[in-house]
Amino acid sequence: MDMFQDITLRHCIVTVLSSAFLAFGLYHVHSLSGVTEGGVIGLNLLLDHWLHISPSITNFVANGICYLLGWKLLGRKFIIYSGVATVSFSVFYAIIEQFDPLWPQLANMPLLAALIGALFVGIGCGFCVRVGGAVSGDDALAMCISSVLHIGVEKAYLITDLSVLALSMTYIPLRRIGYSLLTVTLSGQIIGWIQRMRFRQKKSF
User: At residue 3, does pLDDT exceed 80?
Assistant: First the structure.
């Protein structure tokens, strides 16, 4: 089918595995650390705090807008791989959250949680972005900004994250914002590094 032209099984597998890795990290690290996020996730929390609008509403609307932009700017392959990533993430997160967190002590170690969390987000999102998909609206928005402004994707992540974190300072203590800034900066750099990595070309399957 023309719709699935150039969609490879190898890239789909990478997308599924990277989404599973991200889901594992968000549950076992981010959900315990109390460190806020930038991008769409942080925006949801901000609107919930000041306007009392449920993230279940704002997340749906914001992600929908981001994916629509991604489809218009990045095309068919983006939507297909993003669909695989989104479904995979939801399925794996639903499975993982049935178990107790592996490292509950991270709740009292925000610096370590920020560093480890950056690895999970950077690697999980990085490989998905590399094959042309997005696990969340954050990734879609960063890919769109990168495409329009012709800048590295890590810079695009930083633009959105810093904007939301700056607004979040209206209700979140500065120290906690510092941990958030650390994790989003590191994760964005990792995503950019993975996107620029050179691999030996193999026949697609």
Answer: no
